[in-house]
């Protein structure tokens, strides 16, 4: 979740209680810890962060879970073979 403002702006809101918004953000982070909450001061910074986040490579742990679920033999430690990363990316994009 990308918020186009500073976190401090939450406490300057006048149409809603700032504490309600801050509590809601904290609850979201606790309930969905794998969903990052990013505060970007401007739309340009928000777009830049989003672009880089979406272009980032998958984590080895994410590829391992997928590979094991798909029946591939993969070590629980060390580097994930490039062929599995490529297969993961193809599967994620819907290509075969």
Automatic annotation (TrEMBL):
<protein>
    <submittedName>
        <fullName>Lsr2 protein</fullName>
    </submittedName>
</protein>
<dbReference type="GO" id="GO:0003677">
    <property type="term" value="F:DNA binding"/>
</dbReference>
<dbReference type="InterPro" id="IPR036625">
    <property type="entry name" value="E3-bd_dom_sf"/>
</dbReference>
<dbReference type="Pfam" id="PF23359">
    <property type="entry name" value="Lsr2_DNA-bd"/>
</dbReference>
<feature type="domain" description="Lsr2 DNA-binding">
    <location>
        <begin position="56"/>
        <end position="90"/>
    </location>
</feature>
<keyword id="KW-0238">DNA-binding</keyword>
<dbReference type="GO" id="GO:0016746">
    <property type="term" value="F:acyltransferase activity"/>
</dbReference>
<dbReference type="InterPro" id="IPR055370">
    <property type="entry name" value="Lsr2_DNA-bd"/>
</dbReference>
């Amino acid at each position: 979740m990308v918020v186009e403002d500073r976190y401090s702006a939450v406490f300057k809101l006048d149409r809603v209680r700032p504490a309600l918004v801050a509590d809601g953000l904290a609850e979201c982070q606790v309930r969905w810890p794998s969903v990052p909450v990013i505060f970007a001061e401007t739309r340009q910074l928000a777009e830049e962060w989003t672009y880089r986040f979406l272009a980032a490579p998958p984590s080895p742990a994410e590829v391992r879970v997928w590979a094991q679920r798909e029946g591939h033999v993969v070590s629980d430690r060390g580097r994930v073979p490039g062929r599995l990363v490529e297969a993961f990316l193809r599967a994620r994009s819907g290509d075969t």
